[in-house]
Design a protein that fits this description.
With 240 residues, this protein is an alpha/beta fold. Helices cover 37% and strands 27% of the residues. It has one domain: Aldolase class I (TIM Barrel).
């Protein structure tokens, strides 16, 4: 099971939000390159890089920062947040993103996702961001009327292998992952799931690892790393 340290970018700074709320922001660094180097030195092989400006406003404004991260850190980088047009997707791929995560478009424009999966096999993931049993989009502020299971079932038919599954209510709250949500998505036919939201300890990661035989291939860790409740090197050794 891979671990993906999260680097959430807002106005070029590394931040964390509480439950995705834009007015609940904590700034951890003004130097994304130094943060990426820190996680690489600790043994990470992947980074999960989110453009929060893009998630809220629909334009991936931090792409130049993400591109510098990809060039500098030597890790596989997964890009997410506001990638809603073919041009933005192509620029992210040209920047050598290992994987691009599509969220809002999966809820609003399935044809876009199908085309993306056809053009970039194995490099497209779909985000299932859930709150109170419903998938949310547009920076987690818009309801979709879809349940996580419904969207997971549809995505399986689009040629997308990987889902990023987040319980929005737990994101940044260090309350532990929502295993029931993961079970729901896996039960709907998801092939590969990366868990996100609420992960606070190595014990949480060990619980997630019990779902690895069913398709949980990784976990995104954010606030727990920045607050020091998880040591990345120790976590990697524990899961090896």
């Amino acid at each position: 099971m891979i671990l993906l340290p999260a680097i959430d970018l807002l106005d070029g700074q590394v931040v964390r939000l509480a439950q995705g709320q834009r007015d609940q922001v904590t700034i951890y660094s003004t130097d994304p390159m130094a943060i990426a180097a820190r996680w690489a030195q600790a043994g990470a092989q992947w980074l999960h890089v989110v453009d929060l400006n893009g998630a809220f406003d629909g334009t991936y404004t931090n792409l130049p920062v993400a591109e510098r991260l990809i060039k500098a850190c030597g890790l596989q980088v997964e890009l997410s947040g506001g990638i809603r047009t073919r041009d933005t997707l192509d620029r992210a791929m040209q920047a050598k993103a290992a994987r691009v995560v599509l969220g809002t478009t999966a809820c609003e424009d399935p044809d876009f996702v199908r085309d993306a999966a056809r053009r970039y096999p194995s490099r497209i993931a779909v985000a299932i961001d859930a709150k109170a049993g419903q998938v949310v989009s547009r920076g987690w502020v818009a309801g979709t009327g879809l349940t996580p299971a419904q969207l997971a079932g549809e995505v399986a038919s689009w040629g997308v292998e990987t889902l990023i599954c987040t319980d929005v209510s737990r994101d940044g709250m260090l309350q532990g992952p929502n295993l029931a949500l993961l079970e729901e998505v896996l039960g709907a036919g998801a092939r590969q799931v990366i868990a996100s939201g609420g992960i606070s300890s190595v014990e949480d990661l060990k619980r997630l690892k019990t779902l690895e035989p069913r398709g949980v291939i990784g976990a995104i860790i954010g606030k727990a790393l920045y607050e020091g409740t998880i040591d990345l090197g120790q976590a990697l050794r524990a899961l090896a």
